[in-house]
Design brief:
Layout (H helix, E strand, L loop, with lengths): L6 H5 L11 E4 L8 H17 L2 E5 L1 E4 L2 E4 L12 H11 E2 L5 E6 L5 E7 L8 E2 L16 E3 L3 E3 L4 H26 L15 H17 L14 E12 L4 H10 L21 E3 L2 E5 L18 E4 L4 E7 L19 E3 L2 H20 E14 L5 E3 L17 E9 L3 H18 L8 H13 L3
Parallel strand pairs: 1-2, 16-18
Antiparallel strand pairs: 2-7, 3-4, 5-8, 6-7, 9-10, 11-15, 11-17, 12-13, 13-14, 14-15, 17-19
Helix pairs in contact: 7-8, 7-9, 8-9
Length: 455
């Protein structure tokens, strides 16, 4: 299944593009006439497919640690079309898979081809033939992503174990999805401790800190989130490892999960916005980005997050719906007037997956997650579909301004039961919009698309 992305999610990839295990940057490859270029593209696509999916951005090159536009922009981008791209995939990949091609503007408005490579494959993808003169791509080879990042054949037992493990997980997820289509299940919640309310204390501390930082901004700065915001907070329970300083920061950086171009708890490395220690925790405030090097200054990209060695995490951001880049060429709605029908599912799912990832890094053995999500600035918003792909009748409006939601679950239940966790958690939010009933099928569909892009 090829994951679907709205224009803003893909545009996030071009804000500060850097190659990693799920993002490959290539120059202006001539994919219509140059067979060597076709093989180069195919090798990257095969490796990303085996890694769990990802993105290939064409027309960029890395210089001094940053990605800039490569020389030789073609007169037209017609050569980067879906039929041509998938023709290359069919020529090289066994089994074949389907990629989706988008022409996405960077913050300056220049268009670049972004190819979405699907993951979720039940068997490793191999090369059915070699490249020209047996170079670049070797026949009957399997390619994976390795740190660097590089696209190479598996070179160790661990490489093979990771690859085959992903395929087995995909088979398991497919089985669970088939079972879901037949029956409706539920994930038992763990009884939350009555006292002490440590998570509430943590939330109050983080909100006070955000207000302190926000109040240093100009009155009209969009990073103040004037139309509202939403936050996520969770507490990990279990046998926490004793990690401090650089070792703790490394675990946080490695725990970032990417299911979109702007992941929760993103760990930037550029001076001025890189995370730092504050009051015993690691804190990141993107609203302090005075360079604004991308020409992008809005509430949705002004995250504030904080993670404590005691197992607490907090993330606050503004509404993506309030930015003009969310509307795929259509005239945007006025800020503060709409809420996308899929974004709460996708974003909450992302944070739960991050909680699972951080629990694996910080907790020795089984872990519990005491999880809360809060929406502020809802009053007067109407449910809509930014992508236009969801059939939704007009008129679902909320009169309530705020809502807080919570659950407590086993970290080990998230992978297999994410839709069943999200549905009861988010139903009260959607009910505020004139009793809109959140469809279980929509939750399953959105979470499947999200997990299919894990990299």
């Amino acid at each position: 299944m090829v994951p679907q992305f709205s224009r803003d999610r893909l545009a996030d990839l071009l804000i500060d593009p850097r190659e990693d295990l799920g993002l490959e940057i290539k120059n202006w490859l001539d994919l219509t006439r140059d067979n060597d270029a076709k093989a180069t593209f195919a090798k990257a696509a095969l490796a990303l497919a085996n890694h769990g999916g990802g993105f290939i951005v064409l027309g960029l090159e890395e210089v001094g640690g940053s990605a800039i536009e490569a020389r030789g922009r073609p007169v037209t981008l017609d050569g980067y079309n879906q039929d041509g791209i998938n023709g290359i995939i069919q020529h090289y990949a066994d089994p074949s898979f389907h990629c989706v091609v988008h022409l996405v503007p960077n913050p300056a408005g220049a268009l670049f081809p972004v190819i979405v490579v699907p993951g979720g494959h039940r068997v490793p993808i191999r090369s059915r033939r070699g490249g020209p003169n047996g170079q670049t791509v070797v026949q009957n080879s399997i390619y994976i992503r390795k740190p660097g990042p590089r696209s190479e054949v598996p070179g160790s037992a661990q490489d093979w174990d990771d690859l085959l493990g992903r395929c087995l997980v995909n088979r398991r997820d497919e089985l669970f999805d088939q079972i879901r289509a037949l029956i409706t299940g539920a994930v038992p919640q763990i009884a939350a401790p009555s006292a002490p309310a440590r998570l509430d204390t943590w939330i109050e501390r983080c909100l006070a800190r955000w207000h302190e930082l926000r109040d240093q901004l100009d009155a009209d700065d969009p990073a103040r989130c004037p139309q509202g915001y939403h936050w996520f907070a969770y507490e990990l329970g279990g046998n926490l490892r004793n990690l401090q300083g650089a070792a703790f920061a490394d675990k946080i950086q490695r725990s970032v999960v990417r299911h979109s171009g702007w992941p929760p708890f993103w760990y930037p490395t550029r001076r001025g916005i890189t995370p730092y220690l504050f009051d015993g925790a690691i804190e990141c405030w993107l609203g302090a980005d005075n360079e604004d090097r991308w020409g992008l200054r809005d509430a949705a990209h002004s995250d504030f997050w904080c993670i404590s060695p005691d197992g607490f995490a907090f993330l606050l951001r503004g509404y993506q719906e309030d930015g003009p880049e969310s509307w795929s060429g259509r005239a945007p709605a006025l800020p503060g007037t709409v809420l996308d029908i899929t974004l709460p599912i996708w974003r909450t799912g992302e944070v739960l997956m991050h909680a699972r990832s951080l629990a694996a890094a910080l907790v020795e053995g089984p872990a519990t997650i005491n999880f809360k999500v809060h929406y502020d600035g809802l009053k007067g918003r109407e449910l809509t579909s930014l992508s236009g792909r969801e059939l939704l009748f007009d008129g679902h409006v909320t009169r309530q301004d705020m809502i807080s939601l919570s659950t407590m679950i086993e970290a080990g239940a998230i992978d297999a039961n994410l839709p069943e966790i999200l549905l009861p958690l988010l139903e009260p939010l959607y009910a505020l919009f004139d009793f809109f009933g959140l469809p279980a099928a929509l939750v399953a569909k959105v979470t499947a698309e999200m997990r299919a892009t894990s990299y």
